[in-house]
Known about the structure:
Elements: H1 2-13, H2 20-40, H3 46-85, H4 109-120, H5 127-138, H6 161-197, H7 203-206, E1 233-234, E2 238-239, E3 244-248, E4 256-258, E5 262-269, E6 272-279, E7 288-292, H8 294-300, E8 304-313, E9 319-326, E10 332-340, E11 345-352, E12 363-368, E13 378-386
Antiparallel strand pairs: 1-2, 3-13, 4-7, 5-6, 6-13, 7-12, 8-11, 8-13, 9-10, 9-12
Helix pairs in contact: 1-2, 2-3, 3-4
Amino acid sequence: MSGLETAIRNALEKSDRSSAEVRARIYQSSRQALEAGLRKQGIDDPTVVAQQRQRLEVLIHAIESEERNRLLSVVEDHVRREAARAPAPPPPPQVRPSVTSPAHPMDDEDDVLPVEAEVRGDLPDAKPAAADMGDFRAERGVVAPDARSVPADAASLAFTPERAAKARRKKGLVARLFIYFTLLAFIGFGAWWVYTSGILLSPADRDTSVPNPPPEVQSEDFTGTEAAPQPSVEAGRGFSEDWQEVFNAERGNNGIQPGSLAAVEPISTAAGKAVRLTSRVAEADGNVSITVPADVLREMAGKSSTISVTLQSSSDRQTQLSISCDFGSLGDCARHRFTATPERADMLINVNFDRTLAPNAPGRIIINSDIDGNGRPVNLYSARILPGE
């Protein structure tokens, strides 16, 4: 309240402070300045606002008490000076001497008027007070109570709350419109997603495929003879006798030739005996070759054949590897990339050789386990070839 107290006292000094009406206008302006300061600082707590108003009223009451005491002191001083100037009349013989008591100076109208004239005589005229009050209303920048800094023109207590209130209302409206627009956008996006995703459709409505007719059995579907089973490899059934075995780890690592930057190691696993192949580079020096006999290659000449390599990853992680072949004059096959898992699996490659020229030298099935640069090994169990017919 230090800023408001200073402003009130400066306004009283520049106005006709002996007039109760002028003082009332100054006090009312200070109340309005307090309300404007609270709104400007965004203080809307009812408890805090009530406390600040009460503190201002206490301050106004104290200042008003000081003003009344000051006016009373001026009047008493004037009465004493007038009593000192006038000669004391001789007391009548029958009446005891009377002394003018200053206890009732306000009862005599003749004494009050000169005093008021003397008090107001210190000011040039009453118009500056009105001018100060005009500046008082037009001035902005009044700080709220308990402000740490007091502006230079703290004597001016007037404010214009209309512009601040309009600005706050405009900002609040824009914020509410933005919130409503954001909520509507989210709701619209959610409705569009539910509509386009088909989550509300039944399974029959979501199935956009062509409906298949119910299966029917007719007399011409059976020819009277059973088709010969095609040789294949299936989980749990193993390989048929038509498969030509070119390598089996159960009989050792014969027929395997590692490169200069590759290693071969016989091991035993839960799935049986195997050969661990480790390639240190992805180039030819890291290849491991499996020899394919020439008689098997002659059966593959001019036919479509299938190559099966049974292996698994040597660790709990997947391993990338490549399998290719070089069958001499018969030709070769493209490089195939596979992923070995911790489970034993068969890697199948279909090859088609149009050449009928039977090679006289053995061929090779080439494996490299370092195509991704990690150098992880793989476990090789067997290699088989199914010649075509």
